[in-house]
Request: fold
Amino acid sequence: MANKVVVAYSGGLDTSAVIPWLKEHYNCRVYAVVGDVGQGADELKGVEKKAINSGAEACEVVDLKREFAEDYCFPMLISGAVYEGRYLLGTSIARPILARAQVEYARKLGADALCHGCTGKGNDQVRFESTYAALAPDLEVIAPWRVWDMRGREDLLNYLKKHNVPTTASLTKIYSRDRNLWHISHEGAALEDPWNTVPDDIWMLTAHPWQAPDKAEDVTIAFERGRPTALNGRAMAGDELVARLNQIAGRHGVGRVDIVENRLVGMKSRGCYETPGGTVLMEALRGLEQLALDRETLHWRESQALKFAEIIYNGQWFTPLREAMWAGFERVARSLNGTIVVRLYKGTATTVRRRSPDSLFSEAFATFSKDEVYNQKDAGGFIRLYSLPSRIAALGRLAAQGTGGRAKANGRPAVVVKAGGKRAARGAR
Reply:
């Protein structure tokens, strides 16, 4: 039986109920830890007092914003990871750093158990507990939503009232939201019916595109080794840059997504996400890749991005596979240096200017005007070799169709191999 339990605390209804429930059923001391990943001053205001009023012995708030941006969001950005073609993984990428901070606090206190308020239907339970398994397999894991008899918001409110725990929550809450520096998510209520259009009042970080400024705005982003380092000529730390870009892109309505996604636990769920700054950074870095990466390297990066997105979504950040894949992406990013201009207008973000000291673009070779460096006659031999497998296959089909022993290869009559014969098509040698 656990004696000292550390709870991943948010200040919301679920974790407010978790603390007294743990004390009642485990007769233990409970400690709360809050990871500040940019959810905002309003959400964090008075959170320590709220945890203690719920029954916690203490509550520690850990500032993770810079580390979250630079060591989690930016590697994800470099990889190009996007889940199911739309979701920029804002909630998913925050879970490993939050769970790691919880483990570190538990170690500092000498706790013997970890607890989270994730439901048994969602992905977050997997993300938190996979991190626990990787970093603290010796600690007991308590997941109240999988064992208590409360089933909904009304049950939780009644439980808090019974135990004299103050809360600002009520039955009138419409949406379930999760916010951090990278994004905000919205689930529940009208969104649970995929036929319903998204209510206009759901959005919090982005203006309606039809109400956004009529004049486009250009933002200039500098990158070093794939990491954004300056915005509009001003050097900034990662968390500051993302926060500022959220404001700029948000007023232009950039970064909205309405998606029905496949959860790891098997069901489909509908969510709306706002990722204004992240959307602009994704667009900008892809524009830089076009200049600085050769074809095979770019295609490799693109092919691996889907798997990396699944690793993040599925809570496998602290795994050998994620570390190995990141080593590859980090090597690719060495040449991602330069400056990109992205134009924001009515919900869109479009790369319009590109410059890089590592650019592989050569006007001398690519021009449609007269040039002295490219011999167009060379293309003929290249095409012949490139298409050789198709040529050989076609000759075989002609032979099988019985063409009278004659076919053309290389533009000349050629002898076609017949069944059991020894002669080869001269033009295919």
